[in-house]
DNA sequence: TTGTAGGCGTTATCAA
DNA sequence: TTGATAACGCCTACAA
C-alpha cells in the first residue's frame, strides 16, 4: 500500500505541465489538449496518484461525502437502506457518513451539525423527529434529500413510500380471509409513516364497511419489545380479535412472542401481518405475511436523488409500489 | 443554524488575540494566559464558532475521523458493533466512517484505500478476508485495531472474543441435557472466529468423551439462508441427531425454519443453540438459547482501544467473558 | 506567553 | 488551451 504522499504537484512535474492542468483533467473542468491529457494520465498511473479529498474539500468546497442522518444504525430496517445508499453513492465516488439520530431531536440536531461542520456536499435524512423548519434551514446550506416526509423547498427533495396503500393492502388481505375483528399496532405516531399506516388500516376497514373499534388499536414504538407489550395491553382489554396487523415486522416479531406466551397460535388463533418485509420476515415462525417495501431500494433512490441534485438535475423518485407478500402467518378465519 | 463561515481568524479578531493563540487554546497545545483564554472562549461562544475539520485535516494531518471496515453494514451482527463504535468515538469528538467489505477481499482492499485516501486518523477493521500482511502494511500509515483475529505489529492492536470458550459452553450445555448426537453448523472457516467456534464444539465433545462425527458437521456461511440449507444437507445425510448447534444466531434462525419445514419441533425433536445473542434471539419462536457475546461491547472496546492508541497509550481490551443464555430452544433429551 | 509567516494539497481566478 | 497566483481554514515552527 506504499502510500507515500504523491501530490498533484508531483504528477504535474513528471508530466511536464502545470498543476492547474492536472487539476482540470482530474475534474474535467476545462478542455485540455489530448497530448497533455495522456501524459498526465500516464504520470498518474506510474505514480499511483490519488487526489487528497481533504485538500479538495478545503480548496474546492467539495468533500465528495454525503451526510446521512439515520435513526438507529443497528436497526435491521435502516441497515438495509444504508447499504443501498452506500452502494449507489460509491458508483459516483461519494462516501456516505452515517450519524445516528436515535429518534431524539437533540441527537438529530447534533448529527446535522456534525455533518455540516464536516462540510458534506449533501445531506440525506431518514425520517426522524426533528422539525421541518430546521431541515429546510439546513437545506439552504447543502442540498438535502428527506425520506419519509413531505417537504418542499429549494435544494430540498423528499419522498415517501406509499405506506398508506401498503397498510390498506395488508388489512384488506385479512378482511378477504374473513376477519372482521382486526387489531392494529401503530408505530410511534410522530412518524408520518406511522400515521399513514394507521390511515391505510382505517381505509380498508371503511372500504369493507367495518366500523373501526378504538379498543383494537394499540400505540407502540416500532421495536420488538414494543410489539410484545402491545399484545399484552390488547389482551388485557378483553376485546375479541382474530387478526393482528403490526405496523412493522419488528413489532410483529415481538407480538408473535407475546401471543405465544398466552398460548395463542399463529395463524390458527390469530392471523398476524407485519410491514417492511425485512429479511427476517422469511425466517420467523411461521414465516410472516407482510408488506414489502424495499428498504434497500429506498436507499438507492435517496442516493440517486442526491446525485441528481448535485449535478444540477431535478431528482425524480420512482419507488416500486408496495406489494403484499403472503406467507404463513395468516389464514382464513376459523368458523 | 445560521452557519455563516465563522473562522478561527474572526474569533481571534474579536478576542483581540492572534489566530495561533486561538488554535493553541482549541488544541491545548501550549500554555495560554487565563485572561486570553477566557476572552477567546467568550468569542467562540458568541460567534458560535466550530473549527472546520477539513481545514484541520489539511493543516494538522488529523481529520478526527476513524475509518471502519465492516463487512455488511446491514447485518444485525455488525450493526450493533457499529453502534458501539459510534457512541464511543463520539465522546472523544471523532466520527466513524463506515465502509463495507462485503466479505470480499477486493472490496475490503478498496475500502481500506478509500479510507486511507480520506486521511482517517485510525482504522478499525472488523474481521474480514483480507490478508494479514496487507493489514500490517496499512498499520504503518495509521494506527489500527483489528477485531476477530490475532495480529501483532507496531501501531496495531487486535483482539478477539473468546469464541472457543463460548462454543464449548454451548456444547456442554447440550451434553448436560443428555444429548450425545449434536450436529454443528460452522460459519465460513475463513474466519478465525468460525474455526474457534468449531474447536470449542470439539473441545466439549472430547471433554465428555464423545467421539466427534464428521457427518454431523456442516459448513455454512453465517446467514439465515445458509442455516436453512445446512439443515437440509444434514437431514439428507440421514445421520441421527437430537441437538443442533449453529455458530451464530442468524444461522440458527434459518435452521429453525428448516427444521419446521421437515416437521421437526424445537426443542422437542431437536434442541437448538445459537451464538451471539442478537436482540432477535429473544424473539424467535421459541426464544433461542445462545451464547452472549456483547457485540455492542466489542464495538466500544474497539473504539476505546483506538482512542488509547491515538493518545499514545497502550490499549488494553477487557471483554466480558462469554455467557450462556438459556432460553427455550433447548431441552433435556426425550427418552 | 504570544505573534508572524509559511505550508498542508487542491481548486479557482486571471492573464496570457 | 495553459500557467501563475491566490485562496480554502487551520496548525506549527520560529522568532520575539
Describe the structure.
The structure is a homodimer of 335-residue chains. Chain A is of the alpha/beta class and 335 residues long. Chain A is built from twelve helices and eleven strands. In chain A, the strands form three sheets. In chain A, strands 2-1-3-4-5 form a five-stranded parallel sheet, sandwiched between helices. In chain A, strands 7-6-8-9 form a four-stranded parallel sheet, sandwiched between helices. Chain A has a two-stranded antiparallel ribbon with strand order 10-11. In chain A, strand 3, helix 7 and strand 4 form a beta-alpha-beta unit. Chains A and B meet through helix 4, helix 5, strand 2, helix 6 and helix 7 of A and helix 4, helix 5, strand 2, helix 6 and helix 7 of B. Chain A binds a DNA duplex (16 and 16 nucleotides) through helix 2 and helix 4.
Instruction: Supply the CATH superfamily name of the largest domain in chain A.
Output: Response regulator
Order of strands in the sheet with the most strands of chain A? 2-1-3-4-5
Proportion of strand residues of chain A: 5-15%
Task: Tell me, rounded to a whole number, the average pLDDT of chain A.
Answer: 92
The best one-word shape of chain A is elongated
What composes the largest sheet of chain A? 5 strands, parallel
Tally the beta strands of chain A.
11
In total, the number of domains of chain A comes to 3
- Quaternary structure classification: homodimer
- The percent of residues in helical segments of chain A reads 40-55%
Give the largest chain-chain interface (CB within 8 Å): A-B, 54 and 54 residues
CATH topology term of the largest domain in chain A: Rossmann fold
What is the number of helical segments of chain A per DSSP (H or I, 4+ residues)? 12
Sketch the topology of chain A as an H/E string, one letter per element. Answer: HHHHEHEHEHEEHEHEHEHEEHE
Strand-pairing-aware structural class of chain A: alpha/beta
Amino acid at each position: 500500500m506504499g502510500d507515500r504522499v504523491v501530490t498533484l504537484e508531483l504528477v504535474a512535474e513528471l508530466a511536464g505541465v502545470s498543476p492547474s492542468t492536472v487539476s482540470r483533467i482530474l475534474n474535467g473542468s476545462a478542455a485540455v489538449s489530448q497530448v497533455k491529457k495522456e501524459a498526465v494520465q500516464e504520470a498518474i498511473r506510474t505514480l499511483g496518484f490519488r487526489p487528497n479529498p481533504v485538500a479538495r474539500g478545503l480548496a474546492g468546497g467539495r468533500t465528495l461525502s454525503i451526510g446521512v442522518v439515520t435513526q438507529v444504525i443497528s436497526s435491521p430496517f435502516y441497515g438495509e437502506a444504508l447499504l443501498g445508499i452506500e452502494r449507489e453513492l460509491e458508483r459516483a465516488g461519494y462516501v456516505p457518513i452515517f450519524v445516528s439520530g436515535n429518534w431524539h431531536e437533540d441527537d438529530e440536531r447534533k448529527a446535522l451539525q456534525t455533518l455540516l461542520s464536516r462540510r458534506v456536499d449533501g445531506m440525506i435524512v431518514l425520517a426522524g423527529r426533528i422539525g421541518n423548519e430546521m431541515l429546510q434551514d439546513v437545506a439552504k446550506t447543502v442540498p438535502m434529500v428527506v425520506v419519509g416526509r413531505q417537504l418542499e423547498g429549494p435544494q430540498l427533495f423528499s419522498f415517501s413510500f406509499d405506506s398508506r396503500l401498503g397498510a390498506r393492502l395488508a388489512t384488506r388481505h385479512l378482511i378477504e380471509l374473513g376477519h372482521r375483528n382486526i387489531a392494529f399496532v401503530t408505530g410511534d405516531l410522530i412518524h408520518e409513516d406511522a400515521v399513514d399506516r394507521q390511515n391505510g388500516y382505517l381505509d380498508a376497514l371503511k372500504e369493507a364497511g367495518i366500523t373501526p373499534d378504538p379498543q383494537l388499536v394499540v400505540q407502540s414504538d416500532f421495536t420488538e419489545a414494543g410489539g410484545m407489550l402491545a399484545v399484552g395491553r390488547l389482551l388485557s382489554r378483553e376485546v375479541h380479535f382474530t387478526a393482528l396487523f403490526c405496523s412493522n415486522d419488528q413489532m410483529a416479531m415481538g407480538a408473535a412472542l407475546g401471543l405465544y406466551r398466552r398460548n395463542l397460535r399463529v395463524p390458527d388463533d390469530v392471523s398476524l401481518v407485519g410491514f417492511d418485509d425485512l429479511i427476517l420476515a422469511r425466517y420467523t415462525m411461521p414465516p410472516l405475511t407482510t408488506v414489502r417495501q424495499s428498504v434497500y431500494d429506498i436507499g438507492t433512490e435517496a442516493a440517486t436523488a442526491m446525485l441528481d441534485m448535485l449535478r444540477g438535475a431535478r431528482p425524480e423518485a420512482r419507488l416500486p409500489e408496495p406489494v403484499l407478500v403472503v406467507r404463513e402467518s395468516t389464514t382464513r378465519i376459523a368458523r
